[in-house]
Amino acid sequence: MTHSVVHLLGIPFAIIAGTGAGVFALLSWGIFRDSPFGTAIALLSVGMVALTIYHTMLLVVEPASPVLDVLRSAANTIVAIFIGLLILRHRQLRRDRSGGEAAWTD
């Protein structure tokens, strides 16, 4: 597979941008670890790493590779778990808030 110069320059850019985003996500997780969204932020950082690896591999190897199918599946699974956790946390916070208001009105 032949690559153009722009294509080859995209590989280090993808690695650097993904690494920076992953580091910022890990730092955010360190700050918000004890908050209700700490687990979701941890999954987000793992998802960012998986997507960075996937997109870098997409630039390096051919698109019809079984390794890329596995990486794509893993990244999509992490994103689905992340969204599910956010929905569960949102419902839990809403339930706690409505329960707290009922206690104050009694």
Automatic annotation (TrEMBL):
Q: Which domain of life is it from?
A: Archaea
Q: Which key words tag this protein in UniProt? A: Membrane, Transmembrane, Transmembrane helix
This chain's source organism reads Haloterrigena turkmenica (strain ATCC 51198 / DSM 5511 / JCM 9101 / NCIMB 13204 / VKM B-1734 / 4k) (Halococcus turkmenicus)
Name the record gives this protein: Uncharacterized protein
| Bilayer-spanning residue ranges | 6-27, 39-58, 70-88
